[in-house]
Amino acid sequence: MTDPKKKDIATSFTAFLFIVLVVSGMLMFFHIFDNYTKTVHEILGLAFVLASSFHILLNWKQMKRYFSKQIFLISGILVFFISLMFVFLGKDHKDTKDVIINSLLNTHISNSFVVLNNNYENTKTKLEEMGIVINGSTTIEEISKNNGLSTQKIVEAIMY
Predict the structure, then answer these.
(1) Among 74, 47, 43, which Cα is nearest to 55's?
(2) Cα separations in angstroms, 152 against 17, 78, 147
(3) Tell me: the pLDDT tens digits for 84-123?
(4) Which residues does 74 contact at the CB level (< 8 Å), separation at least 6?
(5) What's the CA gap between 154 and 131, in Å, rounded?
(6) SS3 130
(7) Which of 51, 50, 49, 53 minimizes the C-alpha distance to 63?
(8) pTM of the full structure
(9) Could you tell me where the DSSP H helices lie in the chain?
(10) What is the C-alpha to C-alpha distance for residues 116 and 126, in angstroms, rounded to an integer?
(11) What is the pLDDT, as a whole number, of residue 53?
(12) Average of pLDDT values for 59-82?
């Protein structure tokens, strides 16, 4: 295969993978089709790394000229610091869903039972009939640990 053909292939794959990553990244940002886009984004992101590496390798002569321009250096520094800012600001970011779930699992069972099933006494009886011992537990997390079950199993038992 001639060099121009390799360049065409590398550039085409790089361009189309870039488009897929942009679209899947936007869908992920707005939490649209999360279960689908995450896998597509991750796997094709790896393919993008490979395709763009070939693209750079095959176009190295032209890329060296571009890399030597001052705007390339300025852009690189700017993107690096913006990325660093997101890393440090994001480390304290809490996902709303995780906050709600953790609150539910660690609040007093009289409150969490009501939220999940509307009736504390009926829920307590239902769990005991299923062999789930409440004893002195005050949270779903404690019930889970004391019974050797996951919190998910306890919540499912409460809700159904």
Answers:
(1) 47
(2) 38, 44, 13
(3) 887 877 666 666 677 778 888 888 888 888 788 667 888 8
(4) none
(5) 11
(6) coil
(7) 53
(8) 0.53
(9) 3-29, 34-58, 60-67, 70-90, 96-106, 109-117, 120-129, 140-147, 151-159
(10) 13
(11) 95
(12) 89
